[in-house]
Design goal:
This protein has helices at residues 16-19, 23-30, 122-129; strands spanning 12-13, 34-39, 42-55, 82-87, 91-97, 105-114, 117-120, 146-150, 160-163, 180-183. It is mainly beta and 185 residues long. Strands 1, 2, 3, 4, 5, 6, 7, 8, 9 and 10 form a 10-stranded antiparallel β-sheet that branches.
Length: 185
């Protein structure tokens, strides 16, 4: 039985309605939530510390800026899906689809913190959590294999820094958009 919106041992799995909001709002709201991976009978969790937002067809830094392709099809899907892709032929990156059906927007998970320290960089996050393309299109709201949960921690807006996105210089003015959000203290 899916655990969507239900309490887990540690928190409440985020429902589709959480993701079905404006992307920049969801991005800020993801900070302080927990990425959880269930694998081989064990759980790994880390608090989301940094994310990066990508907003649809107009956003030249977004994969969807070239339209719907086999790679970006998932971004046009319903909110709450995982968009997992490979960069440089070696690093997986996890994104969360947001907004509404046929509106290609997503948020990249850039960094998480665990008890043993900070995992900084989307490729490192995916490697540590065992996330790869097999989880592309995965429904994050079902509470199976991979999900994001709210453990009740409230983040004060003053703790959220907004910065330009990383690695998208080719996008011109879109690269300078302050759509990378990070907990600053």
């Amino acid at each position: 039985m899916p655990r969507t919106g239900r309490n887990t041992l540690s928190g409440v799995i985020l429902p589709a309605s959480f993701y079905a909001r404006p992307t920049l709002r969801v991005a800020r709201s993801l900070l302080g939530k927990y990425l959880v991976r269930e694998r081989r009978g064990s759980l790994r969790a880390g608090q989301i510390i940094e994310v990066e937002a990508y907003l649809g067809l107009e956003d030249r830094a977004s994969h969807a800026s070239h339209g719907r392709t086999p790679r970006t099809d998932v971004m046009f899907g319903p909110p709450g899906l995982a968009y997992v892709y490979l960069i440089y032929g070696m690093h997986h990156c996890l994104n969360v689809v947001t907004e509404r059906l046929d509106c290609p927007a997503a948020i990249l998970i850039r960094a998480v913190e665990q008890g043993d320290g900070l995992i900084d960089g989307p490729g490192r996050v995916c490697r540590l959590f065992g996330i790869d393309r097999r989880l592309n299109y995965h429904d994050l709201t079902r509470g199976k294999a991979l999900w994001i949960e709210d453990r009740g921690e409230r983040i004060q807006p003053a703790r959220i820094g907004a910065f330009p996105r990383i690695g998208v210089d080719y996008a011109g003015l879109w690269a300078a958009k302050p759509w990378r959000f990070r907990l600053t203290s």
